[in-house]
Fold each of these.
Amino acid sequence: MMIGMMVIGMKKDRQWRIRLNYFRQRYGLIISLMIAILISIFLSVQLWQTPGHVSQKRQITNTQQEEAIGKNLGNVYSLSKLTFNGKSQNLSVLDYQTVSSKLISRVKGWHLKYKGDQKLSKNAYLQSLSKNNMIVMSFSDSVSGSVIKNVFGKDIKIANNVMIDHVRLPQGGTNVVLYNDAHHKIYHYQGTDVVQTIKKVKSSERAVSVDYRWIGEHVVTAPIGRIQLQTHSYLLDSDDTMSQLLKIFPDGGKRTVANDQEILTYTNGDNQRMTRNMTTGIINYDAYGINDHVDQVGQRQRQGYQWLVDLHQLTDDLYYFEETNNAKSLMYRLFVNGLPVFNQTDNGTVQVKQKPNQHEQIILSQYSLRVPLPTDNKSKVTLPTMDEEINKLMAAGVDKTDIQKILLGYRWRLNPENQIVTLEPTWYFEQDNVWRSVDSWLADKGGQ
């Protein structure tokens, strides 16, 4: 009986091998071709998603990619002002990054339950924002609800395209309020599941007394007295932006000279073009045939961040500065000690512009700031108050209603002999969507 079972088993084994050989002969070639095709498709997709093929639709919500870069979307669209509202005065923190990071970290652990919204008069809106015993965190310009979710937690209930300018936190309690300057609208949230409160988070010693006021369509914090700020110096850095970008373009560039400026133009098929101004260091990168279907504010701000990733612009000191035309134009600037850096030739900036017919243009610079040089107290500058600067502008013929914004910033001055950039603190104002330093504008006006 045992022998019979062994014979049956051997017959079955032989039949199985015969069937396997038959299957291989009939279908083996087809299966091999299918595997080869799948591998080819996979490799093509990986190649198409490299910076050399940025016209392909990109995944701009990949958290793992953000974490791998080290500076995620929430960091780029970070806060630019932090104010502690007190009974006798409001203190705006100069070195706010450390304190604001601690606040965000704690609030991000809360569950924020939506309690409703209100549309207020401009005066009531200002009073709500300046309420006592509150901490107000302000963005450089309006950010979308999509960005707010990234900063404060993805479970917060807010539409992706709602624009927010300020976040008010209680020094005691868990009521959080979001503010939209354009429509004087506020959004109320109640923090629950609170692990850590923010009651013991204190202001920094480096703070100035301010009040809240409307300038144009935005609420700003205006220093009440004159303020002293440090001048800084840096070595000029011609970073590796070009070496990264040139990997996209196989040609060596076509050289032209116009208006005493040397221009190199690179192309990669019909979808990509780059011009490099060898005189100023400004780079214009154009991508055509973009099929990302980005047509909302929240999407555009995420898209802007993705361009910073693709073009290797995520530096430690580059942050979101402003948006215009429903975020069809986005500006990112270098910030030093919490203040934006301005330059006549756009060094230290990245502009992302969404143009018609699936065309996007990114304007950036190959020059940045590298090594900070030692400074001393002798290089401090005492600046006038905001009111003093506005009065000077009005006396020179500027209508106050034409001033869109006014803020403190650093002016970039380059010494070409030693390649040292000096950053001088001064007041800047925006008129007709153009930023100018107050003193330079007044000097030009006086020379006319």
Note: The chain has four domains: 2-48, 68-225, 235-368, 372-446.
Amino acid sequence: MAPSPKPIAIIAAVSVALCSLYVLTIKRRAATHSKGKTLTEKKPKRNGIVGAVGNTPLIRINSLSDATGCEIFGKTEFLNPGGSVKDRVAVKIIEEALESGQLSRGGVVTEGSAGSTAISLATVAPAYGCKCHVVIPDDAAIEKSQILEALGATVERVRPVSITHKDHYVNIARRRASEANKLALKHINQMDAKVVDCANGIETQHAVFSGEHKGGFFADQFENLANYRAHYEGTGPEIWEQTGGQLHAFIAAAGTGGTVAGVSRFLKEKDPRIKCFIVDPPGSGLFNKVTRGVMYTREEAEGKRLKNPFDTITEGIGINRLTENFKMAQLDGAFRGTDIEAVEMSRFLLKNDGLFVGSSSAMNCVGAMRVAKLLGPGHTIVTILCDSGMRHLSKFCNPEYLSQHGLTPTAKALEFLDRK
């Protein structure tokens, strides 16, 4: 006997209702999930190696957290494809330059860098069809030059001098971009001249440069606000989401100032109560600028300083001028850190957490401990683990080098902090 249509209709109705309820539930969950990710989803979708830049894990640094009663987290920027936080900056600088027409595919990106930004540019530039020319101070760790050359970049090592000197590595990098542009223009003019001569039936010999000549672009990481925007649009939102907005402080050292500027400004826009600080290495003037409003103390006045005022083995942090990027920072204070504290911290983290970090990362963790001491237990503090110790084998991680500079680590625990 055929089944009654009524039960069939009921079953069908119930099925439709359940399906509708399922779809609505999925959409609601998707909408909720989307709301939780809107900050990072605003970032442009990228493919290939550049698509792997950013969204780095935020890890609890157990030893420091347990020692202070705070929750101290490190953003593991050394897990970026190029091995450092500067990957974010390199991608943003190149993308904005290509969009604005300042850089063309096949062109050369030039930069003056102590290492990490250069490595990041050399890593991602080929993904955009570009080349990389780097000018680096010759006191930077030799392995950074070796990495750059292995990545296919042209490396120019120069002696360290004041930024006001025409041969400061940043100024030379700026000149190299200008030279590349002049070369490209000359090549175009010569090609045009050859076409005209051929049209007139005259065959002349003109020097034709080998390869493509697409001009140059000076990345200018210190003054280019794409640096700041990389962190305002990327690092800051990631930290906010990864902590669920439940953080009390952020701290990092500054070189170009892009990281502290972008992150601090974003976090304070989300919650003005979040405290943002810098930790400054020996020889840098940023501590004085933030705490006293002047770049130098009376003892550090311009006329009394050495030609190369930096007296630190840390790399990529510390500066004696205000950059356009740093001007964007919103800071509540600053702390000083010493070389021996950075060295000891790096060994402590390796022994107790298995974290093999570079000099700037170690200094940032020194800063995180300063903030924990200031705020007291029960607070959440975030810092940046910029790069790993793999780029610091010849200096910061070299026992012989450290011994020569009186920086041999001897601490058993954290007693090295604030050592007089």
Note: Confidence is low (pLDDT under 50) at residues 1-37, 192-211, 302-310.
